[in-house]
Each structure stands twice: as structure tokens, then as C-alpha cells.
Automatic annotation (TrEMBL):
CDD domains: USP-like. Signal peptide: none annotated. Belongs to the universal stress protein A family. Residues 2-134, 147-286 form the UspA domain. InterPro entries: Rossmann-like_a/b/a_fold, UspA. It comes from Mycolicibacterium brumae. This is Universal stress protein.
Length: 297
């Protein structure tokens, strides 16, 4: 398996390299660090203009030199450049060229130890044909491997498939498996929509989640043998709910694509998007096709 890293220009991005290093270290796989040079389409400037060529060459050379300096030294890595008008499209094309099975991108400027979805990451989370991992800002692996895979569990008809896929992913990384659900206080409109009434609504919801988790776990033999822990985070908002459960070095949060999205690509729904944007640990988003493939193994 090859991991493709989308490395930005014009700024240092050690966190994305640290995440790629941790993932590669856990599976013994190689890494391709790719910097995508986007044509700025400067009015009056042609692509064969020597000044333009010098400018983009310097961008790429500076970015890749910084990546070489910051990349963990215990993984097999190569550094490449691609030129395209769309950064996200160029990363997908590079993933196809190098037969990557995972694309890793970093966070935009924002709070340390949180995922801040950049414009490139946002497009990848709605269009990538392979899984996408997003590093939290300032992430440092400290030479660690993946220790625990936590699936963001949601009630629905495809829960068993997502649980089985998360189990296979945890097995590949040699990690523990945990299931997590998040109870965020509902506003009046949301409460009406899901027919939650009275103070017992939260307990009713928890009972439903626990029953569905039990059924999903029992539906897959490998997961049943693991008997994964279920944790529920409570909060007045998504940040509080995510922070209500324990996280540590080597944790990964996994979210599945929306069932309403295309089969062959990542498509993050509104709930998963909120979880990703408030996650204190790196996140892997799985396309529906990847979920089905993992679950069948």
C-alpha cells in the first residue's frame, strides 16, 4: 500500500508528514509526498513565460526541501511534484499514478490539536475515490504507531458494514477497535424532527445506540471476537461531545461516507462533517466503496 501526502506550498506543514509517518510506520508501507503547483492564472502571464516558470519552480523546490527536512526518517519515501489547475484533482491523479490507497492532507490555519478543514481537504472529503486522512493542526506522532481506531458510530441501516470495515482497518494497523457515538443537545427543531420528547429522550437514544451496536458487532465474527468498547460523548455542542471521551497519542477517528452520496467517492454528510471539524485526533474518511471492500475482507 502506498500513502500519498498532499504537501502545500508557501507554508510549513510538518503535521501532515507526521501523520503519514505514523500510518506508514504502522503498516510498513511507503509514502509519496506530492506538492501540487496550481497555475495562478496571472493576467497577461503565459505558462511558457520564463518568470512564471521560475516562480513555480521555486515554489515547488522550496516546498519539497522543507518536506525532506521534516519527514520522519524511518519510513520509505519519495518526493514528487505535479502541475495542475486544481490541487485536489492533481492529488487524485497522483494517487492513481502511484497506486495510492490513502491520501493524507493537513489542516488549515486554526486551533492547535483540532482539525481545521482547508479548501483542498473539503474538496477531497467530497470527491476522493479513496480514503482521505486529515491531520489535526500541530499533530506530532512522536515516532508512535496507530494504537486505537475509533469508529464514529451512527444509527442507520449500514451500521454493521461500517463496524466490520472499522474492524478490518484496525486489524491492518495492529490497533485496538473502539466505537463512539456523540449525544449533542438538540434544539427544538431537531428534537421535533427526530421525535425526541421529554427528559427521557437522551436515555432512549442511548438505549437504541447500544442495541444497534450490539447487533452490528454480533453480525461480524472478527468484530465479535474483539468485543470492542462503546463510549458515548455528551455535550451541549459537538466540541464538548468529542472532548467528553478520552483520546491519546496513536488514536485515529474513522467516519464513513453518507449513504446518500456516490458509491465510488468520499461524501461526508453534515453529521460526519461536524465530527471531523471538532475532532482532537486525526480522522480517516472512507468512501462507501472502501467501506464495502474492507467489510468483505
Amino acid at each position: 500500500m502506498t500513502i500519498l501526502v498532499g504537501y502545500p506550498t508557501k507554508r510549513r506543514a510538518r503535521a501532515v508528514l507526521e501523520l503519514a509517518g505514523m500510518l506508514a510506520r504502522s503498516r510498513g508501507t511507503n509514502v509519496v509526498v506530492c506538492t501540487a503547483i496550481r497555475d495562478p492564472r496571472i493576467p497577461g502571464t503565459r505558462r511558457d513565460d520564463p518568470k512564471f516558470t521560475t516562480y513555480v519552480d521555486e515554489l515547488a523546490d522550496t516546498a519539497l526541501a522543507q518536506a525532506r527536512e521534516d519527514m520522519p526518517g524511518d519510513v520509505d519515501v519519495q518526493f514528487v511534484r505535479v502541475d495542475a489547475r486544481s490541487v485536489s484533482a492533481s492529488l487524485i491523479q497522483a494517487a492513481e499514478k502511484y497506486r495510492a490507497r490513502l491520501i493524507v492532507v493537513g489542516s488549515a490555519m486554526g486551533r492547535i490539536e483540532e482539525v481545521t478543514v482547508s479548501s483542498v481537504a473539503d474538496r477531497m472529503l467530497h470527491s476522493s475515490p479513496i480514503p482521505v486522512a486529515v491531520a489535526t493542526r500541530g499533530f506530532r506522532a512522536m515516532d508512535a504507531k496507530v494504537r486505537r481506531v475509533t469508529l464514529a458510530f451512527a444509527s442507520g441501516e449500514d451500521t454493521a458494514v461500517h463496524v466490520a470495515a472499522a474492524e478490518e482497518l484496525a486489524a491492518r494497523y495492529g490497533a485496538e477497535l473502539r466505537l463512539a457515538s456523540f449525544a449533542v443537545n438538540l434544539n427544538h427543531a431537531e428534537a421535533f424532527r427526530v421525535a425526541v420528547k421529554g427528559p427521557s429522550g437522551k436515555q432512549m437514544w442511548e438505549n437504541i445506540i447500544r442495541r444497534e451496536v450490539e447487533m452490528a458487532v454480533q453480525a461480524d465474527r472478527a468484530t465479535s471476537d474483539r468485543n470492542p468498547q462503546l463510549v458515548i460523548g455528551h455535550g451541549h455542542n459537538w466540541a464538548e461531545a468529542l472532548d467528553d471521551i478520552d483520546w491519546g497519542l496513536g488514536d485515529l477517528l474513522v467516519v464513513g461516507s453518507s449513504v446518500s452520496g456516490p458509491l465510488a467517492r468520499v461524501f461526508v454528510g453534515s453529521r460526519a462533517s461536524k465530527i471531523i471539524r471538532h475532532s482532537p485526533v486525526p480522522v480517516i474518511a472512507l468512501p462507501r466503496g472502501a467501506v464495502d471492500s474492507l467489510a468483505s475482507e
